[in-house]
Predict the structure.
Amino acid sequence: MYIIVQERQVFARKGEINIQGDPMKKILILSLSCLLVLSFLVSCRKKVEETPPPPPQVKEQPKVEKVEKPAAPPRLTEEEIFQKKSLEELNAEKPVQLIFFDFDKYDIREDAKSVLQNNATYLKKWASVKVLIEGHCDERGTEQYNLALGEKRAKSTYDFFVSLGISPDRLKTISYGKSQPMDTASNEIAWQKNRRAQFTIIEK
């Protein structure tokens, strides 16, 4: 019996010696212990849930009502615009320009020919237009003489229009002599203005 106990003690001492004498085993045991402690701490650690901040408040934008633009009126053609105008409106625009004459003359002056050509172009464009050609004179001379002279001025203008291709049935003439002066002054400037052939649109 004594012998057996001794043998056990010897074995136990041998085991202690083996354990204490092996440094690698110490390191291994120490490492395992650290891992166990760390894993324990990690498992026990409570996760702190962060509360997210509330979303920013979005102000409601006022609703903008869509305003529909009124439809643009259809564009009128040049013909439609012309037809909408009254005779008074047309004559106020003076599309047919007047011409002037020399003293006691009724022949068409050179500077008046280009004006009458432009007038004829207008009359050809608007073939329905009819014109009254008015002959006028200055204040000098008798009323009867100036009526005759005014008629000659209107007739020479009429003939020039016809030579440019304007139909005679679209033209009428009248003489006002010296009864309707453009300028009532008694001087050469006024007299020059009053010696004229003037045009009035009488039909369109």
